[in-house]
Amino acid sequence: MELHESLAQLARDHGESLFTEADAFRGALDDYLDEGSASTGTINLLTDAVRLGALQGMLAMLDTGAGVEDAVETAGRRLARDRGSADVAGSQWACAVLGFALGKVPVSLATRLRPDAFTAEPPSSTGTGTGSTSARPSVSPPTAPTSAVGPTQSPPQQWPAASAPAASQYPQPPASAPAPPSQSAGGYSAPAAPYAFTASPGYGTPPPAKKSSNGPIIGAIAAVLVIGILAIIGIIALSGGDDDDPSAKDTGGETTSPPTTTPPTTTTPPTTPITTDSALTLQGTGYTYQFPNDDWKDLTADTPDTTGTIDTIAAPGGAIETARGNILVESSSAYGVTDVDEVVDDWKRVLTGSTGATPSDIGSTTIGGKEARGVELKWTNANDFKVHQVAYLVISGDEQYSITASFRQGDSGFRQTFEDVLATWVWEE
């Protein structure tokens, strides 16, 4: 029996939940696989795909409608990076065969990606070479303290964390918030799958990657941001937003979205003083902004924070499910980075991997006096809801912020309302 077939049988015999907990999965492989059917290096590679969150990340991308090959490629590249390995093909193969075992990846792709040397190990932390695949029991970093992690979850150093191969090379920052135990798709009570994401610590605040020996440290915030964004979009998308007429309720004027072929431009910030009204002020962590009118509500307390990164979410009306759109703010540590351009490319890549859409630059601007980089995405989800997202990435103080408006394509009034809200932004440092 081929290895991918053995993994599929393992899933049938012991359940798919086994593929969410690295230690149990490793033990099952040792007990289940015939002696000699897989080397120690292969078992380590498969285990790391679970431990580092690559498998769960790939499944999340597939659930949002991403193409199978794109999801496997993205997850495999991140797994190779997180292991400190140059064996990208081997990492992609590992993601593919695990996906096949769970019924998410076709056998043709799983077998086609099998590399000639898929047991390659990442370099040792001392830089003295890779060594034998049987010389080390595991290539995974030692498990961090797990007191804040649910009993069925993997350690906090999860995909897409850009961690080094050696666990002690960088200090691990604390997780932003413990996620609840892993749950199957459809975990939200209102909408059903495929937009209910697994609450895995793989989407918690990750440690930074080392760009160079003396350069700044860059936090892999991008996936953290987009998963939360998509979780919220899933809620409003499933409701369809039919209760609201895009032309009726908002005071913003009609504008035309910039064409995707227009080169990015720099927007001049408004110079008029900001008028504040305490009754219309939303207080976030390190910032405030003004609601357009008293129909808007802070719905943060009513929104499941499956990623631990959601800071605030607001929308017109009393519920996300029936709102015309929403404004979501997510935050995480900037890990010492002060230049937003150092993290914007990672942000865009994960937006692409998670939505299947290509972000179009809408130029640079300032939000509350801080440099911001903006993109927009247009895509159609599995429920034929045409989603339009306009997002900005900002660094303020020690935090990175993703500020995103999500609404129906063609609703230019809501987009203008979003821009009007951004003009009222005040940072608190």
Automatic annotation (TrEMBL):
Question: Entry's Gene3D superfamilies?
Answer: Mog1/PsbP, alpha/beta/alpha sandwich
Bias (Pro residues) occurs at: 171-181, 260-272
Look up the domain of life of the source: Bacteria
Give the stretches traversing the membrane. 217-238
Spell out the protein name for this chain: Uncharacterized protein
Keywords from the named record: Membrane, Transmembrane, Transmembrane helix
Q: Where is the composition biased (Low complexity)?
A: 124-138, 159-170
Instruction: Report residue spans for region: Disordered.
Output: 117-188, 243-277
Q: Which organism is it from?
A: Nocardioides immobilis
